[in-house]
Amino acid sequence: MFVLLGVALIVFFISHVLSPNPAILWAGPKAHPETVKAVAQEYHLNDPILVQLYYFLLALLTFNFGPDPQTGRPIASEILFYAPNTLELVLASMLVIIVLGIGLGYISGMRFGTKVDSAIRVFYLTTWSTPYYLGAIVAVLVFASYIPLFPSSGNGTVGFSYTPITGIFVLDSALQANWPALQSGVDHLILPATTLALLSFGIVPRIMRSSILDTRWSTHVKAARARGLGEGEVRRRHVLRNALIDTTTVIATTFGWLFSGTIIVEQIFAWPGIGQFSYSAIISANYPVLVACVFVFTVGVIVANFLADVIYPLLDPRITLGEGG
Amino acid sequence: MSTESKRLRRLLMSNPLSMFGLVTVTVFVVLALLEAITFGRLTPYNPYAPDFQAANLPPSLAHLFGTDFEGADIFSQVIAALPVDVGISIAVVVVSAVIGIVLGTLAGYFRGAFDEVIMRLTDMFLAFPQIIMSLAIAATLGRSLLNVTLSLIVVWWPSYVRLVRGAVLAVAAEDYVSVSKSLNSSFFYIVRKDALPNVLPSILVYATTDIGSALLTLSTLGYLNVGIPAELPELGKMVSSVTYNLYLYPTQVVIPALVVMIMVAGFSFLGEGLRESLDVKLRPHILLKGRALEKLVGAQPKRGKGGGPTPVG
Lengths: 325, 313
Prior knowledge:
With 325 residues, chain A is mainly alpha-helical. Chain A is 74% helix and 0% strand.
């Protein structure tokens, strides 16, 4: 909560204090002076800074970011429309990251110094070094154009009449037992989700591998073996479980990368989410929308970190919730 | 010291990963420096001179990376963009590391209220997704090299403060520091003699990999066409300016992006290699190639650290 307030203050500082003339920024670079005046009025940009801060915090608390200057619709409802799609993409990527990241890191650590280890390391270091735009472009080019395995754009809703329950297309179509729609949704989801996951996940196998290496030769693992536990049990209960503790924290931080990545990946895959929404806001210099998107993304990251804090004590018996704030 | 650095060099050279990193990083940094100090005379062609008769050529010996839709040489454009890309990334990391060393040392050494304030502040800044935050700042400040650099530094410094503070806390708890304190050594003396030598290697390792991440974020800003002045070449910007040609001339789009990838990979491979070579716990395992140690350890259990698993069953 404290961090959230700080984040709000920093966003306010950037958008209202740092910029020489916020009204011009908010109205767009080519706006008529009359429009600039109207915008300044609309968003309270002529008031004293503390009054501006009050309106800004009020807007965030009531989730009312004002109207979108380009479409005229409320920004909040636009975000509510795009957010579930981004959530669908990010959660699917997360699934890929958890399975692949932990799996590869574990294999790499247990086979330290072998060719398998080197191959896995080269793989994750290379995907980590790949810019989102390159990875997404190559994925579209290869798997949608040269070898047309997957559709190249959209999230598969086109052609299906569906009533949103959660707004997440794949989930909704599964809930309503609409199998063709589910098929279309999954088909459209696989390529962008895998691309996003592989481009963001490098740090997960890396940390997993190094914690495996830290634990593998440690005294408590030796002690477990000395107690006569079987190799499988030692690996599962002592090596793997210990290594998962560090990895959980890191998985939470990859949410930040995933959100950043959606800006590029959603644009290239024409995925109708917040990433693409913010991309078009950047391109068309739509400042109010950009500020709202930045805030929403940041809240997403904070929530993810909070969830990691909740999962943490389940893995590490030494830590209990509430200890140390 | 010199035998130590020799040993480090041998460890680095023995690993093809870090060797690749070392070579790549050296090549690109030297190219960028040469291009910068010769004021752009390194490029074989004028990177912006259109030559419409040679438009959209595929890569060849005359045009290593081919030409773009105006017939300008892509290889020359890539070389021309290196000083901006490499220069800003290194600048961002160096400035952030310096901020981190100063604030982190103060916070870790003096503790108390100052520490509390600094740590809460880094918490807030770390909550932002890096690309999104620097994007917002760069969009607010407007286009200039300084503004892009600043927008990246704003999101880059907190992790260094964390890193340095943690290391200083660990050092400050050591007995030799309390002895030094009781001998009335000054703050600067302790920092210079005890804290920094312990902190610097890990910062160096982290920073090496981090230059790659800074480069990734910078080129993403370029791809989004935010912050970098219109007249300056930048690799990410080159990619986005030709994406509409993707299906017709994929090489125009993919080659500049691949250059970014190879540079970033160079920095991360080098950093990864350095980290592993400096890790005292792993060193015996690296020198004996991991597996071998497990067999050897039964025969000659000398170093206390590296006891391998005993065969079970």
